[in-house]
Design a protein that fits this description.
Blueprint: E1 16-21, H1 23-30, E2 35-37, E3 41-44, E4 53-57, E5 63-69, E6 75-82, H2 90-104, E7 114-119, E8 128-133, E9 136-141, H3 150-160, E10 165-170, H4 172-182, E11 188-192, E12 199-203, E13 206-210, H5 225-234, E14 239-243, H6 249-256, E15 261-266, H7 269-281, H8 286-290, E16 292-297, H9 300-309, E17 314-319, H10 331-346, E18 349-359, H11 366-379, E19 384-390, E20 407-413
Parallel strand pairs: 1-4, 9-10, 14-15, 14-17, 15-16, 17-18
Antiparallel strand pairs: 1-3, 2-6, 4-5, 5-6, 7-8, 8-9, 10-11, 12-13, 18-20, 19-20
Helix pairs in contact: 2-3, 5-6, 10-11
C-alpha cells in the first residue's frame, strides 16, 4: 500500500525565499552548524510559511546554505544543505536516509532491530527523528516545517524497508498547531496496519516492547543500548538497584548478566508493568528466569532516602534520571540535583560496589557532570575508581556541539 496523508498540504513543498544573516551566523554556517536563530535574520524576501525553503546568501550575495523556514520557532531555519546548492526533492531525502541506514546496518548482526535510524541534525535532517522497532517505524518531528515533506519521507521509507506500520509522533510544542492546520494527530498511523497494543523488537538478542503511539519519546529509550550492555558485564552475582527504571531496560540486561536480584524503581506504574512483561518475554534465558526481579512504584529520591534509613545496601546502583536542565538558567539547579542523587545513591551502595550514573541533559557538559560526581564521593569520604566513561552509541552520532547530550559514568566506590 502506498502511504497517504490527511491533507494535500502535506505533499506540497513550499516556495523558496531569500535570506541574509548576521556575520556571526555566517561564521556558524561555514562551521556547518545546523541552526539559524530568529535574531540572526537580517533580511528575508517575504514573510515565509512553515516549510518554505530559505536560501541563505552571504554579504557578497553568494550561496551559503538552504534550510527549512519555521516562522513560529526561535530556530528560524534548520539547515539541510551547506556550501553547494541542491534540489531538495524526494531523491535528496532518500540519499540522507540511505546514508543513515548504512551507518547502522551493522546492528542487525548484533541481533538488534530496534534503533534510531535518523538522528535529526546529526544525520543532516534537523528536527526529524526516525526510530525503528523491528517492523514498526516511527517518525517524530520537532518543527511544523517538516509537515510539507512528510509524504516524500514516508515514500522513501516505504520504498526502502518492509515495515508493517509507520507512525507519526509530534513534539508537544507543535502538536496542536499541526493537528489544526493539517489534520495530523500525534500517534497517527501514516501507513500500514494499526499498532495492536505494543511493538516487539530485539536489542542485543533481548526482546523488548515499545509503545510507539503513547510512549515517551517514540516509545522506548533507544540511546542507552550500549550502556545497558556494559551493565550486563558488571552484574554477575550482584544485587542491583535500577532507579528511574522506566520499563526495565537496565534491569533486564543485569538479569541476563546473572545478577542474583534486581529492583526496578519508577514513579510510573504502567512503565513497571511493561518492565515485568519485558522480563516475561525473555524467560527462556537462564539468568533472567533465575533472577529475583522486584518492581517498586515510588519517587526515586524518597525511595533512596527510605532505603538508606532501613539500612538496605546494593552491589550495583544505576541512576538514569530524566533531563534536569531544559535551558541555561537551570544548569546550577540540575547540577545540585545530580549531586543529591549521587549522595543518595551512595547511601545504598555497598563498599566496593559499582555506581552507574547517567545524564541526558545537553546543557550539562560531560566534564562538569563527571566532576560533580567526583566531588560528592570525596565529600562523603569515599574513594572512586573509574571503570569507564561513555557517550553516544553509533545510532546517536554527534556532529555539532548541542547534539551531545548523553554521558554515563561507571565507577567502583570504596
Amino acid at each position: 500500500m502506498k502511504p497517504t496523508l490527511p491533507s494535500d498540504q502535506t505533499s506540497q513543498p513550499k516556495r523558496n525565499m531569500a535570506v541574509r544573516v548576521t556575520e556571526t551566523a555566517e561564521t556558524m554556517i561555514r562551521k556547518r552548524h545546523p541552526w539559524i536563530f530568529d535574531q540572526s535574520i537580517t533580511f528575508q524576501s517575504h514573510a515565509g510559511a512553515a516549510g518554505d525553503l530559505a536560501v541563505i546568501f552571504d554579504s557578497h550575495r553568494k550561496f551559503l546554505a538552504l534550510g527549512l523556514w519555521d516562522p513560529d520557532s526561535v530556530i528560524r531555519i534548520r539547515i539541510l544543505q551547506f556550501s553547494k546548492q541542491a534540489e531538495i526533492d524526494q531523491e535528496w531525502f532518500a540519499g540522507k536516509i540511505r546514508a543513515a541506514y548504512t551507518l547502522r546496518e551493522v546492528l542487525h548482526a548484533q541481533h538488534t532491530d530496534g534503533y534510531r535510524l535518523v538522528f535529526g541534525e546529526n544525520d543532516g535532517l534537523p528536527g526529524l527523528v526516525i526510530d525503528r522497532y523491528s517492523a514498526v517505524f516511527v517518525i517524530k518531528i520537532y518543527s511544523a516545517a517538516w509537515v510539507p515533506y512528510l509524504l516524500w519521507i514516508t515514500e522513501c521509507l516505504h520504498n526502502m524497508f518492509s515495515y508493517r506500520t509507520l507512525v507519526i509522533r509530534l513534539s508537544r510544542n507543535i502538536a496542536e498547531k499541526v493537528e489544526a492546520a493539517y489534520g495530523i494527530r500525534d500517534g497517527t498511523v501514516l501507513d500500514g496496519e494499526p499498532v495492536v497494543e505494543r511493538a516487539l523488537f530485539r536489542e542485543n538478542g533481548l526482546i523488548f516492547e515499545a509503545d510507539p503511539i503513547h510512549g515517551h519519546k517514540t516509545g522506548f529509550y533507544l540511546d542507552q543500548r550500549e550502556n545497558r550492555a556494559r551493565v550486563e558485564q558488571l552484574a554477575a552475582g550482584k544485587s542491583v538497584l535500577n532507579v528511574f527504571s522506566y520499563n526495565g531496560g537496565f534491569s533486564l540486561y543485569a538479569a541476563r548478566g546473572k545478577a542474583k536480584a534486581v529492583t526496578s524503581v519508577d514513579l510510573n506504574p504502567l512503565a513497571l508493568e511493561s518492565a515485568r512483561r519485558n522480563f516475561d518475554y525473555n524467560l527462556d534465558i537462564p539468568g533472567i528466569k533465575a533472577c529475583q526481579h522486584e518492581t517498586v512504584v515510588a519517587d526515586a529520591f524518597q525511595y533512596l532516602q527510605k532505603a538508606a534509613s532501613n539500612q538496605q545496601k546494593f552491589d550495583l546502583v544505576i541512576l538514569d534520571p530524566p533531563m534536569f536542565a531544559q535551558n541555561q538558567s537551570q544548569i546550577d539547579r540540575a547540577l545540585a540535583t545530580y549531586q543529591k542523587l549521587t549522595r543518595l545513591g551512595l547511601g545504598v551502595l555497598k563498599p566496593g560496589g559499582v555506581l552507574v550514573q547517567a545524564s541526558c541533559s545537553s546543557r550539562v557538559s560531560a566534564p562538569v557532570f563527571f566532576d560533580a560526581i567526583h566531588a560528592v564521593v570525596q565529600r562523603m569520604g569515599r574513594k572512586i575508581y573509574e571503570i569507564e566513561r561513555s557517550g553516544h552509541a553509533l545510532d546517536h552520532p554527534v556532529n555539532f556541539p548541542e547534539g551531545a547530550y548523553l554521558k554515563c559514568l561507571f565507577a567502583r566506590i570504596e
